[in-house]
Amino acid sequence: MRVANCSAFLEQLEQWMEGERSPSAEAHIRSCQTCRNLIADLDSIRDTASSLAATDPEPSERVWTALRAQLQDEGLIHALRPGVWDTPKRWLQGTFWVLPRPVLAGAYLVALIAVGFALSGSSGLLNDSNLWMSRTQRSTQPLSASLETEEDAISSMADTNPVVTASLRKSLAIIDNDIALCEKSVREEPQNEFARDYLYEAYQQKADLIAQVTEGDEGQ
Amino acid sequence: MSTPSSRSGSLSRKVAGVIVPGLLLLSALPASADKIQRHFKVDARPVVTVHNPNGTITVRAWTKSEVMLVATRATDQVVVDAEQNGNRVDILTRQVAESASPESTRADYEISVPEDAELQIHDDSGGVNVSNVLGDMNVETIAADVDMADVAGYLTVKTVGGSFQCARCAGRLEVSSITGNFRLIDLRSTYVRAQTSDGNILFTGQFLPNSTYRLKNYNGVIEVRFSPEDSFDLNATSLKGKVHNEAKLVPPSHHRFLPRFGNGLFGSYNSGRAMVELSSFDGTINILKRN
After folding, report:
1. Under an 8 A CB cutoff, do B143 and A182 touch?
2. B-proximal residues of A, 83-112, CB under 8 Å
3. Residue numbers of the domain that contains A146
4. Which of A171, A172, A189, A191 is best to mutate for the B interface (most B CBs within 10 A)?
5. Which residues of B touch A170 (CB under 8 A)?
6. Structure ipTM
């Protein structure tokens, strides 16, 4: 029952990252390679962010606020709604579309946390454009790939209400265009915090939109 | 002078003149359109949830300790479920036919609630109108426009393509969209956060002391209209677009990092009692005097 254990472990992810580790979580980590990889990635991101921004180790308030709000929205902080994690799922395997929205957005959130950590920080401490570029690409590429896969959900969406479908498709096209333009700006000026902020938010919007489409499809 | 037969013919024509247009009118209406009215007694601060995929939702406050629902269904291919659980009233439109046209699954709601009611509304297409309700509210739509007036509380509004208008809203306002336009008029809110990707944002009204206004888009126009009596600190930046400013700003006295990229301006207007942050990637920012 690895999936069920992964679900239970995800519920304790925040505590784990803060050093509060229950025996059951430690037991799960010992037996689950997927969760071990996740924790290793998050540790690595946190360590990198800390070392790169030694005088300002925290991500910007905006990033924390957005992430915390989303964690709370999705019930990953404080009380979880019973049954949210009951659905069997192939967590972190690029098949988020089969999951209910809280799980879907929660899974994307893990990727967004990585993007948020990597895209935050004071650019004044990083003068190496190549480093900024590689960090940005390393952070966004996995998420981008996942989101592209999920876009299939929109193309196969049931066309029960043309107004709704048209609005969703138009919005997705606009976000994709925004992402492309932001990426272009980041390529041209890798240290441009403004462009990186917008790129991060565009990804966040896309993840949210796809989650919304998935939820709508499930409701039909 | 008319004969009986001619009077009879005239009467027939008159009757036909009334009945035929009436029949035509009836035939223009969906076959099963009907109206449902329900009443629910509630205590203070009731919670009302509405989930209506297609149709308008109009919510108004009244003085009764009661929630009244008037639902108009386009056809019997949809069912209106309305039930009370303690101090909570849940209203849901449910499609019963597997395949049905959007027109036939439409349901329009008029809901009267106590003014301290908390609202949770979901409407994919149609429209949401809320007025005079003072409780917290959360509204989510896809293509439906949202129009609020004289509301308060913690207001969160999220649309995909629907526009948003808020007149004389108080409390805390957070609104986001992808292609929706926003009109924020004479707000009384102490915290306003409005973000749309490819929509315009208009803010007109007073910037209240000790309040925060964050308006952000990717593309489009952000326009704020201030009056000479207003007092605010301004931070406006557009990375690729232009910033037009009619406010005579005093540069900040304390050290501040100025943006190294794009077009931006910082400064205080009067004594800087409110905080105004305007941000765009590729759009235009206009800071104009209000007439």
Report:
1. no
2. none
3. 59-219
4. A171
5. 161, 179
6. 0.78
Query: Taking the complete model, does pTM exceed 0.80, yes or no?
Result: no
- Please indicate whether, in this complex, the C-beta atoms of B125 and A164 are within 8 angstroms of each other: yes
Rg (alpha carbons) of chain A, rounded to whole number: 18
Q: What residues have CB less than 8 Å from A186, skipping those under 6 apart?
A: A133, A136, A192, A195, A196, A199
User: Per-residue pLDDT tens for B228-247?
Assistant: 999 999 999 999 999 999 99
Distance from CA of B7 to the nearest CA of A (A): 53
What total number of domains does chain A contain? 1
Residue A97: what pLDDT? 32
Instruction: Supply φ then ψ for residue A54, to 5 degrees.
Output: -60, -35
Considering only the C-alpha atoms of chain B, give the largest distance between any 2 of them, rounded to a whole number of Å. Answer: 101
A163 contacts in B (CB within 8 Å)? 102, 125, 143
Residue numbers in B near A175 (CB within 8 A): 178, 197
The distance of B125 to chain A (nearest Cα, Å) reads 6
Which residues contact residue B94 at a Cβ distance below 8 angstroms, ignoring those fewer than 6 apart? B78, B79, B80, B81
Residue-range domains of chain B with CATH:
37-227 (2.160.20)
Residue bearing the bigger pLDDT, B256 or A29: A29
pLDDT on residue A115: 57
pLDDT (tens digit per residue) in B94-118: 988 777 788 888 999 999 999 999 9
Interval A87-112 mean pLDDT: 41
Answer yes or no: is A88 within a domain: yes
Tens digit of each residue's pLDDT (9 = 90 or more) over B183-206: 999 999 999 999 999 999 999 999
Question: Does the distance separating the beta carbons of B259 and A168 come in below 8 Å?
Answer: no
In a domain, A32, yes or no: no
| CB contact (8 A) between residue B178 and residue A194 | no
Nearest CA-CA partner of B177 in B149, B191, B156:
B156
- Does the structure show a pLDDT above 80 at B135? yes
Task: Tell me the percentage of chain B whose pLDDT exceeds 90.
Answer: 76
Report residue B227's pLDDT band, with 50, 70 and 90 as the boundaries: very high
Q: Which residues of B touch A193 (CB under 8 A)?
A: 261
CA-CA distance, B278 to B220, in Å (whole number)?
Answer: 12
Contact A167 B143 (CB under 8 A): yes
